[in-house]
Amino acid sequence: MLSSILSKSKCAECKFCCVFRRQSRWETPLFPKEAAASLSEKYKNAKFRPVGDMFTIDIDGEYKTDDPEEEAPCFFLDSETGCMLSEDEKPVDCKIWPLRIMDKGDKTVIALTPTCPEINKLPAETVRKLVENGLGKVIEEEAEKNPDMIKEYREGFPVLSELDQQII
Ligand code: SF4
Ligand code: SF4
């Protein structure tokens, strides 16, 4: 969804958003129940845990220390080639990252994750226009179907768009 502004080759070199610090486990992507069941069959090492009506990867057992900065990769990350999932299998959270739909208390917003090195090289206006010109609507519709993907707002995430409706 962000291929017009994020190059595949840069992402293949980076892979930052497919590796999770212990303190950033709230960022792990959500999968619908059927997708989690199917991927558990296909990738025997993959573990999932429920989040509301959806499922996310359960990487708790992958950390070796209590260090909040320790990192563990997603089960579907190949260190050479990147994400092993097909476009159909890849969760919406990964397709829209580094955008996030978030609950800001009195409103639902679309915000930018501040840690993506590539997107943060672009003018904020470029990303904002992409959201205004259709991508924001796509994200809103996905969140209406799966409200569990709406994260609690965190300080430091620039807000790109405020939705007309509050979804949760
Ligand atoms: S953090 Fe940004 S640049 Fe890095 S892989 Fe993810 S989307 Fe691509
Ligand atoms: S599902 Fe794929 S894109 Fe998403 S975090 Fe895992 S490896 Fe990365």
Q: Your description of this structure?
A:
With 168 residues, the chain is of the alpha+beta class. It has two domains: 6-86, no CATH class; 98-168, no CATH class. 26% of the residues lie in helices and 21% in strands. Strands 10-8-9-11 form a four-stranded mixed beta sheet, with helices on one face. A three-stranded antiparallel beta sheet has the order 2-4-3. A two-stranded antiparallel ribbon has the order 1-5. A hairpin with a 2-residue loop joins strand 3 and strand 4 (54-57). The chain is globular. One iron/sulfur cluster is lined by residues 6, 10-11, 14-17, 97-98, 116-119.
Topology overview:
Layout: H1 8-14, E1 19-21, E2 30-31, H2 33-42, E3 48-51, E4 54-57, E5 71-73, E6 77-78, E7 82-83, H3 92-96, E8 99-103, E9 108-112, H4 124-145, E10 151-152, E11 159-162
Parallel strand pairs: 8-10
Antiparallel strand pairs: 1-5, 2-4, 3-4, 6-7, 8-9, 9-11
Bound molecules: iron/sulfur cluster (SF4) (2 copies).
Largest pleated sheet: 4 strands, mixed
Note the beta-strand portion.
15-25%
Ligands in the model, by name, code or SMILES, are: iron/sulfur cluster
Number of helices: 4
Oligomeric state: single chain
Let me know the average pLDDT: 94
DSSP E strands, number: 11
Task: Quickly describe the structure.
The protein has 168 residues and is α+β, with helices and mostly antiparallel strands. The chain contains 4 helices and 11 strands; from the N terminus they run H-E-E-H-E-E-E-E-E-H-E-E-H-E-E.
Features:
single chain; 168 residues; alpha+beta; 2 domains; four-stranded mixed β-sheet; three-stranded antiparallel β-sheet; 21% strand; globular; binds iron/sulfur cluster
